[in-house]
Design a protein that fits this description.
alpha+beta; 12 helices; DNA-binding; transcription regulation; transcription; Sig_transdc_resp-reg_C-effctor
Length: 337
């Protein structure tokens, strides 16, 4: 039987949430009272590519030095991969999981419960809970399904809220990490450390962990191995309304991987903004046309609509995004002044 009292506490947490990291932290405390776990990984994801971006995790300290390998194995494991989940699942046959065979078994992990936070606008996060001793029950998985349903929209709402602040000036300096085939860092350009520290603030006196870079690089490997077809790219909020786009590609004869980090283009920002605000397909298309500077007449012609219909769509966009003018709308969506 699903614990309705715990779900109600999580609902109240979600209703009051303004920050996705704080929301996940508070929700985990409630989840742990109903579904005990030894470790967890709960990243946000790019809603379109499903590549992880902003991780919240607690894993055994012994695994931290091998974090690139952990992420690589996670992306190469097809069993219960978040991109294919339709509901919470556990490791019915652990030996079928590459992630478990190559890594988790040696850590004493006996089962993993996986859930995905997805709606019609995209994939927003996934949650893995590791258990040492015993397996997850049907009731526990049912509880995780209820939690995922409760938290998907609030997490999407928190992502939409990151677009409300004024966008900082763009940095023209190149930001690149060079990784070896096993995703270990070989080198990086000088601004990279600052970006990484802001994406995932490290404890005092420790180097920042390039988790977002590991994830897009691991997605590249997954695409190459035929595990997934989405491109190795992810968009992630940095700070102050500023969004970054990370991409991974092979370079050189040694099969090294370059991960580039750059300010998201207006089109990239707008695509995430439209999904986060729950815009319908035609509304999202209209918004993209507006970012090019097109006026109502031009947009109507491009979309084969009447100007009156364009205005109706625009009113709906204003309502869903909490804006009242095109100037404010485009400032939030595209990051333009």
């Amino acid at each position: 039987m699903v614990d309705t009292a715990a779900l109600e506490r999580i609902r109240r947490i979600a209703d009051a949430a303004t920050d996705s990291r704080a929301l996940r932290s508070a929700a985990l405390a409630e989840i742990g009272r109903v579904v005990p776990f030894a470790a967890y990984v709960w990243p946000l994801t790019d809603p379109e590519t499903s590549v992880a971006t902003a991780p919240l995790a607690a894993i055994p300290p012994a695994l931290m030095p091998g974090l690139p390998r952990l992420i690589r194995l996670k992306y190469l494991t097809a069993v219960n991969r978040w991109t294919g989940l339709s509901g919470a699942a556990r490791l019915e046959v652990p030996e079928q999981s590459l992630f478990w065979r190559e890594l988790l078994r040696d850590q004493g992990v006996t089962d993993v419960a996986s859930a995905v936070l997805r709606d019609r606008y995209g994939c927003w996060a996934f949650l893995d809970l590791w258990r040492c001793g015993g397996t997850f029950t049907r009731d526990e998985l049912a509880f995780l399904d209820e939690v995922a349903a409760l938290l998907t929209e609030p997490i999407r709402r928190c992502e939409a809220a990151t677009f409300s602040a004024t966008t900082a000036a763009r940095d023209p300096a190149p930001v690149v990490l060079l990784l070896d085939p096993d995703l270990r860092v070989l080198g990086q350009t000088s601004p990279t450390r600052e970006y990484l520290a802001r994406l995932l603030p490290p404890p005092a006196d420790l180097e920042p962990v390039p988790a977002a870079a590991y994830n897009v690089a691991a997605q590249l490997v997954a695409v190459e191995e035929g595990v997934d077809g989405q491109p190795p790219t992810a968009r992630v909020h940095l700070a102050g309304g500023r969004w970054l786009t990370l991409r991974a590609a092979r370079i050189g004869a040694d099969a090294q991987i370059a991960v580039t980090v750059a300010d998201s283009s207006p089109a990239d920002r707008t695509a995430v903004f439209a999904r986060a605000c729950g815009l319908a397909a035609r509304e999202a298309e209209l918004l993209q046309h507006l970012t090019t500077g097109a006026d109502t007449r031009t947009v109507a012609a491009r979309m084969f609509l009447s100007e009156h219909t364009v205005q109706d769509h625009l009113k709906s966009i204003f309502a869903k995004t909490g804006t009242r003018s095109r100037r404010v709308l485009l400032s939030r969506a595209a990051g333009t002044a």
